[in-house]
Amino acid sequence: MKRNQLRLYLVTDRALAGGRDIEDIVRESVEGGATMVQLREKDIDTRDFIELALRLKKVLAPYGVPLIINDRVDVALASDADGVHIGQSDMPYAMARRILGPDKIIGLSVENFAQIEEANSLDVDYIGVSPVFATPTKTDTAAPFGLEGLRRAVEMSVHPTVAIGGMNASTAADVISTGTDGIAVVSAIVCAASPRKASEELLEIISKASS
Amino acid sequence: MKRNQLRLYLVTDRALAGGRDIEDIVRESVEGGATMVQLREKDIDTRDFIELALRLKKVLAPYGVPLIINDRVDVALASDADGVHIGQSDMPYAMARRILGPDKIIGLSVENFAQIEEANSLDVDYIGVSPVFATPTKTDTAAPFGLEGLRRAVEMSVHPTVAIGGMNASTAADVISTGTDGIAVVSAIVCAASPRKASEELLEIISKASS
Question: Which residues of chain B neighbour A74 with C-beta distances below 8 Å?
Fold first, then answer.
């Protein structure tokens, strides 16, 4: 994984998609510049999850954009996705690495500074600093890092970082100015009238803020 | 897997356990004669699922009773369980076999005769004929096979069979008399005042009916 593939990281959310097809949202977002896609699904049959992952892989292949599966190492294996993103209540990192092998991307959510220190001792591919701001998308999250917390997290981490939680056109410039490698966006793309335009706009903000 | 390990197959259900510890129910049931245990969990964090599987493995090891994980190939890999049980909406069999390798047990639920024919062309270790009777434990099931349907399923199948759905002390003798290798029991053990005594009683009925 290249560090700049974290710049604009789309995380899917079927509930927020409001009946629109996840494939269409992903395609549009990638055409608009998204650099990585995480398929996040809860309450879905394993078979449907795998089939959706296989469909998204086909969508992403022409763009060279990696497909990351949230939580489910089995779905990542079955669909031969590019990797998994795991949280602190998912499979422990060492087990996931053993099962997936050295070549798959494994991202790890960290919710506090102790977890960043722990991640520093692991060969994870990136960490997701979560949440930076309070967000309605996930309600089971820890206290937000805030911009100063994110800046400190970026300094502490030996791994590339992506900022999660409350990422949108209003917050992106300040977030990128902390030095983080990218932003992980859910509702600002998934709920947008045009996921393509929303992605273009976010990527422009990111490019300006990081230049 | 030996065919007689299907004789009394316990399937866990946390909701039916009513706050009692799954580990205790499993230990008691195995002491009472259960020959195989399937850990079935929905709505549980992956990490908790893995930890519970690892605890059950320790409980079962001294008895040589296999631990089977429902649906989740990732949990089976992480915990090095003896195998998985998959349904028609779980990971397709060929994918599960490829990921788990030739030595793990893979059981497949079949809900009609066409699925039994399909299973005959696969190297599954056993099939679960489901449901034999209507049952309140699972509400998303197909039309029941009934005793005559089960008898036909047993004749058709090239694989060992275990009967699922409505298995208890009242039905076990008739079910075993169809020639099926065993019964998969949920509430008749999980909800019993003494899972040990319930298991002993069921095993006695099975032994008498199959002799």
Answer: 72-75, 77, 91, 99
